[in-house]
């Protein structure tokens, strides 16, 4: 077996070690490890086997310097958001299919978002995919003049005029909310409340769309927006607030699925029949929503397609096949499950 011996065993194997043992040039080893068709199949197999035997791994940082540009995409995510976890699950295979690596960073709400971005950049990420960033648009525009940026799940105003390499990939939040209101009204509901997402990404568009849809159905006097956030605690707080009111609405639209789960938990513990007394709709269609014990009616966002398109945009910026800003908007779908029904007469 081709192993390092003596004092060599205590250092990290190098490409030169692989070349020496395989009896080929260092350049040919580099071509083989990069997957370039410059060697016979027999030589390729021998080089890969020796690299594996001595434990050689490519130094990503050194490779970046040698190539002159990064093949790493930095991804920033909120680890508490289930839907963002599903996006990351789609981003990894999409990146590797295109020959890029992924460097992942958590985005913690009690710390500076820009600090996590700077950390990704310090690791020589060539482009960034930011999942639901909360930073100001001015910051995102400034950042896109330093490195290509893809913002996921958030609409940016005046994107076409942005001077940097900035793209958005998102679901049509407004259309999704209109679909939810239309569906509930079609079932016969009129007292429809909305627990919004506060300052979280996408919340403003969903809130505006709820108000507009209610007005379009002649229900302007029934509009009720309860301030919230995209988490279970906000949904639980909103449910307790509604339980203290003289009467319950017949339907509630949550800002996202996590908020809906908080509502569902408090309502059911209080003996409220879902959907007999109150119909409930979420937004995202995260995998937990399809759990048989939850079975949440929700607005579906296609995590796999959003993840793949985000990677495509980031790579197009890197290989310079795209030099202008872009806004990729995907269509939502209404997924009807067991938390909605016509109101009781």
From TrEMBL:
- Give GO MF terms, alphabetically: DNA-binding transcription factor activity; transcription cis-regulatory region binding
What is the originating organism of this protein?
A: Mycolicibacterium goodii
Which is an annotated Pfam family here?
Answer: Peripla_BP_3
Domain of life assignment? Bacteria
Instruction: Give all residue intervals belonging to the HTH lacI-type domain.
Output: 13-67
Q: What name appears for this protein in its UniProt entry?
A: LacI family transcriptional regulator
Q: Which SMART domains match?
A: HTH_LACI (SM00354)
Q: Which UniProt keywords apply?
A: DNA-binding, Transcription, Transcription regulation
